[in-house]
Design a protein that fits this description.
two-stranded antiparallel sheet; about 650 residues; 7 strands
Length: about 650
């Protein structure tokens, strides 16, 4: 056999990388995939997401009681059965409050840079509305938060802030007695009413008879409230792409295609089906449902190889072809040449069965999926669906580490570029998961602070922090992007810095928090990148009227001014220009003069730089600005004149 090593492109439907080098379009594809995923999950604290939820929100039983408790005590603890909409209810309680002061944000659920604090009072701003989701925490975290809650509530009252906490229902026996008076249990709202409300906002108004079908009435009571919103979204999508002669009943039937419970049928079929090859083909069809026959066949063969299944001793032409093998397991290549099971919902039941009842091969299933995704011919749309199916099973069976492992592997130096969107997607799915999201936020933190994290993974982390985590946990996204910006060079580092600055500028609270972090970093002197970030982020007039902001600016400028003049003269010019405006002059120049502290050398450098700025464009306003700056420097030094700066 003769083998040729090299690159050969038979057919290209997009960008192709036939050698080494950056593939920026791959990251654009990854970003697009994350944007689409985020649009399907409007559960974040971002204002536009909250507004979307508010128009579709159906108040559950106990909502008014919760409102009263929050108004009276500034704190409410929301309890209820899982799937009853506890988080949404807590979010809407906060959304209904006045937003004249402060902001609405979710408290961090990982320790990050303050490992010793269960709750940090520094996360509270005047008039803030705070969400704390404890629904999936473990016992130790739950106990620690309750212990810290008393002092935290005192700070809430002082700041005029409000807190809504989602309790872990399964840990109700651990709730401390003094907190029970703050607890309100909500009930599940009418599932049909929730669906109708969502549909009406999509311009769909079905009749009562259309809503009264057996399939829908049996489905609605048994699913979490978030799945009802997802059903409405699918119905709207079906309406948008269906022919004009189709109606609500057709849209509903197609939207419920994945909700047909075929568990019993699959269990019976597998009990009677002992052939390993057929079982491998069954799972391959289930995971790559709706793909080309070649994809399904490669998947089945790869699974047999991963599990060290004995090969079939018969010659290939003596064995059945793929068409016959598919027919034996109830699948077929349909008119679009895509392989699907004949029975609706059978593919989901097969996946559930394998991951549930063959727990001893879950690691091998992960390795198998890794091999399958390495195939470059698999289309992006097929990859996206397969990744979502695999992630759903990994998260359902409490194996989030499988997704972390794949993300790390798919972004290694040796991994092909086409796996980057898949890596971003598995991390985003993990971050969005209600049960395991905290695990992934901690994992992203660990990666972002490690010196061993490769550039490929760092670039994906920038994407998931800015596109996914920032929507639901912006504070934690800010921390992780800051660590990435500090530790990464080149194009990836520039992307991290850009994402960090965009996020910090997007909100006054995040802007203040970033200035605080930069002040601490510059004071410690460990990260030179912090000075560059400060000079690019700091706005001479934004929130300068707030004392806490001025204090952070002074700390940062104090560190910056102690470095070579050429590193800060250009940004200083912007500040001096802002000082020409009489509305801002006093506060802007007060920050700069206070940053000199009592250091004569630093004061002299600042004043000489200001003189150069004045001489570059002589004007009365510039002369007056420099004169005021000199007076403030003299006052800070405790002297009447400043003879050294001539």
């Amino acid at each position: 056999m003769t083998e040729t090593f090299g690159s050969y492109v038979h057919e290209a439907h997009g960008s192709v990388n036939s050698g080494d080098g950056p593939q920026f379009n791959i990251y654009y594809a990854a970003e697009a995939r994350l944007r689409e995923q985020a649009s399907r999950r409007p559960r974040a604290v971002a204002k536009e997401d909250r507004a979307h939820l508010a128009t579709r929100f159906v108040p559950p039983r106990g909502m008014q009681h919760a409102r009263n408790r929050l108004e009276e005590t500034n704190t409410v603890l929301i309890d209820g059965l899982p799937g009853s909409g506890r988080r949404t209810a807590a979010l809407m309680l906060l959304h209904e409050l006045s937003d004249v002061r402060g902001s609405l944000h979710e408290l961090p659920d990982t320790s990050d840079d303050t490992a010793t604090l269960a709750l940090d009072a520094q996360d509270i701003g005047d008039g803030d509305r705070l969400l704390l989701d404890l629904s999936e925490v473990d016992e130790s975290r739950y106990i620690a938060v309750q212990t810290a809650l008393s002092d935290f509530r005192d700070s809430l009252v002082r700041h005029g802030a409000h807190l809504a906490v989602v309790l872990p229902h399964r840990l109700g026996y651990l709730l401390r007695g003094e907190l029970k008076r703050l607890t309100v249990e909500i009930g599940r709202p009418s599932a049909q009413r929730v669906l109708i409300t969502h549909l009406r906002h999509e311009g769909i108004e079905p009749s009562q008879s259309e809503l009264g079908g057996t399939q829908l009435t049996s489905y609605l009571p048994q699913v979490p409230m978030r799945d009802i919103a997802g059903l409405a979204h699918r119905i709207r999508r079906r309406r948008d792409v269906s022919p004009a002669d189709r109606g609500f009943s057709d849209w509903l039937a197609e939207s419920l295609v994945d909700e047909h419970d075929q568990t019993v049928r699959v269990a019976a079929d597998l009990a009677s089906q002992r052939d390993g090859r057929r079982r491998a083909l069954l799972l391959s069809v289930a995971l790559f449902h709706g793909t080309a026959p070649g994809t399904v066949l490669r998947g089945a063969n790869a699974l047999l190889g991963i599990l060290s299944h004995p090969p079939d001793p018969l010659p290939r032409l003596d064995r059945a072809d793929l068409h016959a093998e598919l027919a034996d397991i109830g699948a077929e290549a349909q008119s679009d040449s895509r392989v699907r099971f004949r029975i609706v919902g059978y593919d989901l039941a097969v996946r559930d069965h394998f991951w549930t009842f063959l727990p001893d091969i879950r690691r091998q299933l992960r390795d198998w999926f890794d091999v399958c995704l390495a195939e470059p011919s698999l289309a992006q749309s097929d990859r996206k669906e397969a990744v979502a199916r695999f992630a759903a099973q990994s998260l359902r069976t409490a194996r989030p580490e499988d997704l972390s492992w794949l993300a790390h592997r798919w972004t290694s130096d040796k991994a092909p570029a086409h796996l980057v969107p898949d890596a971003a997607q598995v991390l985003a799915l993990g971050l969005d998961d209600e049960q395991h999201g905290r695990h992934f936020r901690q994992q992203v933190y660990d990666w972002s602070t490690s010196t061993e994290t490769g550039n490929g993974l760092r670039r994906v982390l920038v994407l998931v922090c800015s596109q996914t985590m920032a929507r639901s946990h912006p504070d934690q996204a800010l921390v992780r992007l800051h660590h990435l910006a500090r530790r990464t060079n080149g194009v990836v580092g520039a992307g991290a810095r850009r994402a960090l600055l965009d996020l910090a500028r997007s909100d006054h609270r995040l802007y203040r928090r970033m200035l605080d972090r930069l002040g601490a970093g510059i004071t410690q002197g460990q990260w030179g990148e912090d000075r560059a970030l400060f000079l690019e982020l700091a706005d001479p007039v934004r929130l300068v009227g707030h004392r806490s902001v001025r204090e952070s600016l002074i700390v940062c400028w104090n560190g910056v001014l102690r470095h070579p003049v050429e590193s800060w003269t250009a940004p200083l010019a912007g500040w001096l220009t802002a000082g020409e405006n009489l509305r801002h002059r006093d506060l802007v120049l007060r920050v700069l003069s206070a940053a000199c502290d009592t250091d004569v050398r630093v004061s002299g450098c600042l004043y000489r730089a200001a003189l150069h700025w004045q001489y570059a464009d002589p004007s009365a306003s510039r002369a007056e600005t420099v004169s005021v700056l000199l007076r403030k420097i003299n006052t800070a030094q405790g002297i009447e004149s400043y003879p050294l700066a001539v």
